[in-house]
């Protein structure tokens, strides 16, 4: 059930934020960004594995078939689930507080409809997000109220700024 709720939440976040991302990427109005190579669900393995290359990162799925990464956000270590369905990085309030981000209630302006009702997220920007040897600066994110998100999500506001990301042979390859 929680997976359904998370998918619903971030599908709606995508609908709200995608036009802004397209505009910032410099695409003409009405144009679509190029499709990514994510086409299949990975086969599950017993534990996640990471291998690093020259400005690339290869991830293996965990036993549930998800891709988990250790990252540094503005110098602080955080765990993320890679979520190509999330338009932006999504962080629960408790995790945002570790980064020194404490949005006021009036800053929760992104309306996200879920199966459990409307959720309000607080848009923000992260100075730097590092995953392996890959670094992206000035990254869009949304702070979610505690209880609406089980873990940090590494969304397209990070992934779309890489040279490529691709699912192949049961692995996710990120390259900058």
What are the main properties of this structure?
alpha+beta; 11 strands; seven-stranded mixed beta sheet; 176 residues
Task: Give a short overview.
The protein has 176 residues and is of the alpha+beta class.
Largest sheet: 7 strands, mixed
Helix count, per DSSP? Answer: 3
Beta percentage is: 35-45%
Question: Would you count the extended β strands for me?
Answer: 11
What would you call the structural class? Answer: alpha+beta
Overall average pLDDT = 78
Terminal Cα separation, in Å? 35 Å
> Quick one: overall form?
globular
Give the radius of gyration.
Answer: 16 Å
Query: pLDDT under 50 segments (min length 5)?
Result: 2-6, 8-47
Percent of residues in helical segments?
A: 10-25%
One letter per element, helices H and strands E, the order comes to: HEEEEEHEEEEHEE
Layout of helices and strands:
Layout: H1 2-24, E1 50-53, E2 56-59, E3 68-73, E4 76-82, E5 89-92, H2 93-98, E6 110-114, E7 117-131, E8 134-144, E9 153-154, H3 156-159, E10 164-168, E11 171-175
Parallel strand pairs: 4-9, 5-8
Antiparallel strand pairs: 1-2, 2-11, 3-4, 3-7, 6-7, 7-8, 10-11
């Amino acid at each position: 059930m929680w997976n359904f709720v998370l998918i619903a939440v971030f599908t709606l976040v995508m609908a709200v934020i995608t036009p802004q991302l397209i505009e910032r990427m410099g695409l003409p109005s009405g144009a679509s960004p190029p499709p990514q190579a994510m086409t299949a669900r990975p086969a599950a393995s017993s534990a996640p594995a990471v291998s690093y290359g020259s400005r690339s990162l290869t991830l293996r799925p965990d036993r549930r078939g998800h891709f988990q990464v250790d990252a540094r956000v503005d110098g602080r270590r955080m765990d993320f689930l890679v979520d190509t369905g999330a338009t932006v990085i999504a962080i629960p309030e408790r995790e945002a507080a570790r980064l020194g981000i404490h949005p006021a209630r009036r800053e929760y302006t992104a309306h996200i409809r879920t199966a459990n009702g409307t959720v309000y997220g607080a848009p923000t920007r992260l100075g730097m997000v590092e995953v392996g040897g890959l670094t992206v600066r000035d990254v869009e994110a949304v702070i979610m109220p505690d209880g609406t998100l089980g873990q940090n999500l590494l969304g397209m506001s990070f992934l779309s700024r890489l040279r490529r990301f691709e699912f192949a042979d049961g692995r996710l390859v990120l390259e900058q």
